[in-house]
Each structure stands twice: as structure tokens, then as C-alpha cells.
Design brief:
Layout: E1 10-15, E2 18-24, E3 31-32, E4 37-43, E5 51-54, E6 58-59, E7 63-64, E8 76-78, H1 79-86, E9 98-101, E10 105-109, H2 115-120, E11 125-128
């Protein structure tokens, strides 16, 4: 297994019990303790602040969203549009592949195709069939 970790990488990290968006900060200090490996993160919404998160509380698999994807409503939807879609007879749960997105990056897969789960996600978009 190869870890893709580098300064400037877009990540999600746990902050106050919720996922937050940030980038890994370049650092010459290593924070390996008996508790775990800690990395420094610059929050997207607070670039003047640095957070420190344990590696198991960091989601490292963010993928940049291609701009062309946003042009196709069948692939790029708001959460509300996606909820409407999954409630139609055209929706086939067994064939569906969708991911949560902030409109810039694709993050983790949709694991439950229901209104409650989708509404709770901290991001505004769903991207279908992309990885």
C-alpha cells in the first residue's frame, strides 16, 4: 500500500467531531508519539490557522473534480437534486456509484442512498460515477 502524502495535499480532517477541509502543511517537525502520527493542516476557511490532526482522523483520498463534470447535470448534482433522483423509479441502487463533493474535490463514497444520510453530509454536492 502506497500512501500519497505531501505538503499542499487536499484532505478532510476531524475538527470538533465534523469533517473539515484543509491542506497538509509543510513541516520539518515530526510528531510521532505513542498515540500516533500527527500532521499539520491549514484549514481551507482559515488559512492563517494551523490544526494538528492524528493521521487516522485524516481522509487522504480526495480527488480533484474535473471542471467538465460540472456541466453535466446527470453527473454533478446538489444534494437536493440527488435526493430527488434517488426517489425516482429510474434509480438503481445496485448499479449506483456516487461520491460526496464540495464542488472542487471528490471525497468519500455515498454509503447510504437515503435522504437522511445524504442530508447529514457536510458538503453540498454529489458526483455520480466518478473516481
Amino acid at each position: 500500500m502506497k500512501l500519497d502524502i505531501y505538503a499542499g495535499k487536499r484532505v478532510l480532517y476531524k475538527h470538533n467531531g465534523q469533517w473539515a477541509v484543509g491542506t497538509l502543511e509543510e513541516s520539518n517537525t515530526h510528531s510521532l508519539t505513542s498515540v500516533g502520527l500527527f500532521l499539520r493542516i491549514i484549514p481551507k476557511d482559515e488559512p492563517e490557522v494551523t490544526h494538528i490532526a492524528e493521521i487516522n482522523d485524516i481522509f487522504l483520498d480526495a480527488v480533484p473534480l474535473d471542471e467538465w463534470t460540472k456541466q453535466y447535470k446527470e453527473y454533478f448534482m446538489t444534494k437536493d437534486e440527488y435526493i430527488q433522483f434517488i426517489e425516482t423509479e429510474n434509480f438503481e441502487k445496485n448499479l449506483e456509484e456516487a461520491y460526496v463533493s464540495d464542488g472542487e474535490y471528490i471525497y468519500y463514497p455515498v454509503s447510504k442512498y437515503n435522504k437522511t444520510w445524504i442530508t447529514k453530509q457536510p458538503f453540498d454536492y454529489i458526483v455520480r460515477g466518478a473516481t
